[in-house]
Write a structure and sequence with these properties.
Length: 646
């Protein structure tokens, strides 16, 4: 597969923004397997995955034809790239370092575009993989570089400057004199920073700007000889301010720190301003110097990020060659709920936020916890696991927090607990609902204070440990019944990840079966490759109450007992068998069934059950309609209008 990137720009920068435009349907005209369209102000960027080359003009024409972008877009301002360059651009946008704009705006447009594409079924394994790594990269940039903290535009630079000089812009008062095209951004920045009063000192008969939305927060003042006494920030734009008003401002503020910013005009009586006590004066050239310095610092940070991106590109191609396209940090899945978990895991892994993982037994909660740890900046530090329900209550406290010699019978020496052993790493508390109430108090104290006490000791020990917890119980209901502390529940449940049961993700079963066949064939030195029709039907129709753990055990047994390359029904544990009609129908067509054929039959059976209603079938299969349509085309299934009752 090849990856293509195209960027188109509007002819007229005065045209309205195109953010929020729809994702197109590229299948009828272009052989694209996956695609993502990102809309930003005056810009549209397209990422396409295809086995063959895609002409830029064809993409542009199709986007215009489907009203995804206006006809005013032109190819003269187009940029493009293929493969490494396309992937680099993808990661630059995900990381927020593309261009000089606000990284939050870039990320929001990128995030919204991807989720719209995923919802429409246009994002497959390639784009999902890139997006998951892009979100992880974004958080790494946030955690390990100053890139996002370095402003490079006038308004945020002025706010940063005011915060440093005044201590805080919050509760300060601002007075604006004159007008400027960038003034709306400046007013909005001061409002967001907490400025308590905003005045507009107008020239005679000129209150017209106050009718526009950005200026409505300004209190109009007629031209006069004084600036309000509480003002400590003065913004001066053309046509400027007269000497008398400025003198009054200087005299009234002798005891206060004040900031004067002359943006686009010369400061009157500049020599007196420099001698004024407690006053800081800047003009636009001073701000320009700060912009230049900040851009240089940002470029330095961006250079480091681009080195990370180069490594991510190499890792992507290695992932592509391995073929495990539905595996994330050791977890297998393409179900939409699992993809959301993969994305959220990528976003939260590098923070120290506490995570509560819930789900039925056997769904893979510990695998998710290990994935969070492996993607975090604690990956090279200890990962400790404790099942709170597997250790007697009288020993659990010692296991967690350690003990000192003589603290209880049998305590013949000091012992380090798991929290100390996991210092600077991660501790995973499985079955947290089984923890006794008196230990819940101690765990809550650690989460709040970061300190523990060994059993029998009064000495507090500071430890740096990230806590991940898991449960298969309803902790909220337990809090209502006073079986679990509500304050601990809310402290643990900062981020909640709910792992779906295997019966809720049937499209993942063929992937898991294939994975376990390969794993246990290698372990047992056998060459088991497939299931026969009866075994495949049994696996498909079984509810798997033990979830992935039960499926793995079943496949381990099957591989161990299989004779030859095919797993038969007799090799599986005792499970409800498919109906006789189903077996007879399958047997009449094939003696063996591949995983791909099993997927095809599942999709076609679902369509039959839904009376060939694509919308309903796609929802039951948890895939997009476009994905469903594409799979039917791969199966060479006729999709006539008399069958498709949409």
């Amino acid at each position: 597969m090849k990856i293509f990137w195209y960027q188109f720009r509007l002819d007229d920068p005065a045209k309205p923004q195109v953010a929020g435009s729809p994702q197109p349907n590229l299948i009828p005209a272009i052989d694209a397997k996956e695609w993502l369209i990102v809309h930003r102000a005056q810009t549209v960027e397209a990422f396409l995955i295809s086995a063959s080359a895609i002409d830029a003009k064809s993409v542009l024409d199709l986007l215009v034809e489907q009203s995804c972008i206006p006809e005013t877009f032109k190819t003269a301002s187009m940029q493009k790239g293929t493969d490494r360059r396309a992937i680099q651009r993808f990661f630059e946008m995900a990381a927020g370092i593309a261009g000089n704009g606000d990284h939050e705006d870039i990320l929001k447009a990128f995030y919204d575009g991807f989720h719209q594409a995923a919802g429409d079924g246009n994002a497959g394994p390639f784009l999902h993989r890139l997006f998951q790594r892009g979100m992880w990269l974004h958080e790494r940039v946030r955690q390990e570089t100053p890139f996002y903290q370095i402003p490079v535009e006038e308004a945020p630079i002025v706010i940063d400057l005011a915060n440093k000089i005044l201590g805080s812009v919050e509760n300060s008062s601002l007075c604006v004199c004159g007008l400027d095209p960038l003034l709306p951004d400046m007013i909005e920045a001061f409002r967001n920073a907490g400025c308590k009063r905003n005045y507009y000192l107008s020239s005679p008969n000129d209150h017209s700007p106050l009718q526009d939305p950005p200026f409505r927060s300004l209190q109009a003042l007629p031209i006069q000889e004084t600036v309000p006494d509480d003002v400590n920030i003065l913004l001066i734009y053309p046509p400027g301010i007269n000497d008398a008003v400025l003198k009054t401002f200087l005299r009234s503020g002798d005891r206060r720190t004040r900031l004067v910013l002359a943006l686009g005009v010369d400061l009157p009586q500049n020599s007196k301003l420099k001698r004024a006590r407690g006053l800081y004066a800047y003009n636009r050239s001073d701000i320009g110097q700060i912009v230049a310095l900040n851009k240089a610092e940002r470029a330095k940070a961006a250079g480091e990020v681009k080195r990370w991106i180069s490594g991510e590109i190499d890792a992507f191609y290695q992932w592509q060659e391995r073929g495990d396209h539905f595996q994330f940090a050791g977890i297998i899945g393409r179900n939409h709920q699992m993809l959301k978990i993969f994305e959220l895991t990528s976003r939260i892994a590098q923070s120290n936020i506490t995570v509560l993982i819930d789900g039925e037994s056997g769904t893979g909660k510990e695998l998710v916890a290990r994935a969070i740890h492996s993607l975090s900046n604690r990956a090279h530090k200890p990962f400790r696991v404790l099942n709170c329900g597997a250790i007697p209550e009288n020993l659990l406290e010692s296991e967690l927090f350690g003990h000192v010699r003589g603290s209880f019978t049998g305590a013949v020496a000091n012992k380090q607990g798991l929290f100390e052993a996991a210092h600077q790493g991660t501790i995973f508390l499985d079955e947290i609902g089984e923890m006794p109430m008196h230990l819940q108090v101690k765990l809550l104290r650690f989460l709040q204070q970061g300190e523990i006490k060994r059993v029998g000791s009064n000495e507090t020990i500071q430890v740096d440990v990230r806590v991940l917890a898991a449960t298969n119980k309803d902790l909220l209901e337990m809090t209502r019944q006073d079986h679990f502390r509500s304050d601990l529940y809310y402290r643990l449940n900062v981020i909640e990840l709910t792992i779906p049961a295997l019966r809720e993700r049937p499209e993942d079963i063929p992937l898991l079966v294939n994975h376990f066949l390969k794993h246990y064939s290698k372990k047992f030195r056998k060459n088991v490759k497939r299931l026969d029709h009866e075994a495949a039907a049994a696996i498909r129709d079984y509810d798997w109450p033990g979830n992935v753990r039960e499926l793995e055990n079943a496949m381990e047994r099957a591989v161990a007992l299989a004779i030859g390359p095919t797993v038969a029904l007799r090799d599986l544990p005792l499970m409800p068998c498919p109906s006789g009609d189903e077996v007879a129908t399958s047997a009449a067509s094939h003696d063996e069934i591949t995983l791909k054929e099993m997927e095809k039959r599942h999709i076609l059976q679902t369509l039959e059950n839904c009376d060939w209603n694509y919308e309903v079938a796609a929802k039951r299969l948890a895939i997009g309609r476009t994905t469903l349509w594409r799979k039917l085309r791969e199966y060479k299934v006729e999709t006539t209008s008399d069958k498709a009752k949409e």
